[in-house]
């Protein structure tokens, strides 16, 4: 029987808060508002997960992802996805060297700590599938040889939901690999005025760079701390009950609301709630999980894991509406 992880001390949480404040400060220098997005990015980083960002063009999805990546003093690669992008363009390939009369392996851009896949839904299905092994197994295979990916490793993907020409819908198997799917909203009036002010001062110009404020070792410290956060068995049962409710919505919500869900969340959803809740506990300076940690990012965890039917689409029922109904129906500890 494995030993229970030792309790996280306050001095450890204080150190973690300092690291998180450094990253948040670098993020805020480039991004106006978007606190929910910042939280989701930090959670994905701490929980060793990947994140999918979706919005209409111009809402700083790419800037937010690259800002987080550059705030860490680590390797960063950006891949602009297009229909003619090949799997070898991402994972690498073997190139013949005529001088030595042998093949040498050239690793692709996915072999970086932070990989930004811009407009991932513009890549073909074959190229999208090349990312599955990297995202799940944290390794690539080139000519039968396994190449481990560096630590930390995080994929930040963006997609535009309103354009369909030249795009390929992400398969459910790949969507499930993303810990979170965050939908970026429009800024409010005050935030948009701040964008204009920063534009005038040059803070948003191409000459404005993001300083690397933390190291990969500090990111590793946060990730190890998250693994030691205590989760009470009552909270675990609450998470399981929530995910099971997405698979039996007609029983939990009744036939009127429950009929819209075709497929509920898989056990990856259960694990995602568990990982995210522990990361949020550290962000909030606690060594244990409370029910609010489970509820806080419920939309980002489930919106890409529950599949609604055509009836829901016809009646304009959004996944967030079903998710909120499930959380209202399942008693909180």
Low-pLDDT runs of 5+ residues are: none
User: Mean pLDDT score, rounded?
Assistant: 85
* Main beta sheet strand tally, sense and closure: 5 strands, parallel
Question: How do the strands of the widest beta sheet line up side by side?
Answer: 2-5-8-1-9
Helix content: 40-55%
Instruction: Give the beta-strand count.
Output: 11
Gross morphology: globular
Q: Treating each run of at least 4 consecutive H or I residues as one helix, how many helices?
A: 16
Content-based structural category: alpha/beta
Q: Whole-Å distance between the termini?
A: 28 Å
What does this structure look like?
The chain is an alpha/beta fold. It has helices at 10-30, 35-46, 61-71, 87-91, 125-137, 172-175, 189-201, 216-227, 233-247, 249-253, 255-258, 267-283, 291-295, 298-302, 310-314, 319-329; strands spanning 51-54, 76-80, 92-97, 102-107, 114-118, 139-142, 145-148, 154-159, 180-183, 261-263, 307-308. The two termini are 28 Å apart. A 5-stranded parallel beta sheet has the order 2-5-8-1-9. The longest helix is centred in the N-terminal third of the chain and has 21 residues, at 10-30. It is built from 16 helices and 11 strands. Helix 1 crosses helix 8 (216-227).
